[in-house]
Amino acid sequence: MNLPKFSFSKVALGFFLIAIFPSFACTPAQSFEYVEPRKEYYQVATRQEPKEPVYSRVTWSQLPRPVPDAPVQKGKMIQPTMSFEMPNSTLAESLEALSQSIGYELRYPAKWAKRRVSLKFTGTVEEILAEICKQSRVKASLDHENKILRVHFSETSPRLPKDR
Question: Is residue 122 classed as helix, strand or coil in its secondary structure?
Fold first, then answer.
């Protein structure tokens, strides 16, 4: 006689299910009562002021774009009045003193550095520079954007092409 072999764990599981099943199947049915949803009441809306008049339903708006830079206004530079005294000096010394007093870089040709200048003058930086140029017979300019004081000589001066 060949009987099927069952393992102990399978038999124990079977007995356990048979013992638990009737406790769930035979429980008394619970009765549920229907509860109606609560109705909420709100106060009537009132206004303190009348409605704004509607003139047009279309509104204007600006398209998104980067914030523009602050406007740059071109105007005269306000320069302080300076008193400049350099008796018996050279062109290089007087231009160096002027450029250092306003914080500008100085560029000049070395061949004109020894020209004599005698100054005792009160005025703006541009007036003092004009007086130095007049006494030493040179041309000079102030470059305010790059902060440079330049002395021009004939090779670098701008000129028109020669007519042929």
Answer: strand
Condensed to tens digits (0 to 9), the pLDDT of residues 85-127 reads 888 899 899 999 999 999 999 988 888 888 888 888 899 888 9
Pick the CATH number of 82-152 from 3.10.450.50, 3.40.190.10, 3.55.50.30, 3.40.50.720: 3.55.50.30
pTM for the whole structure: 0.49
Identity at 119, one-letter amino acid code: L
CA distances from 144 to 71, 99, 105, 130 (A): 19, 12, 11, 16
Crossing angle for the helix pair 125-136 and 91-102, to the nearest 10 degrees: 170
> For residues 142 and 149, is the Cβ–Cβ distance under 8 A?
yes
3-state class (DSSP) for residue 123: strand
Average pLDDT, consecutive stretches of 10 residues, N- to C-terminus, the chain (164 residues): 61 73 61 83 81 76 82 74 88 91 89 86 90 88 89 69 65
3-state class (DSSP) for residue 125: helix
Measured in residues, the chain has a length of 164
Report the C-alpha gap between 148 and 155 in whole angstroms.
Answer: 19
| Residue 112, token pair as written in the block | 């004109």
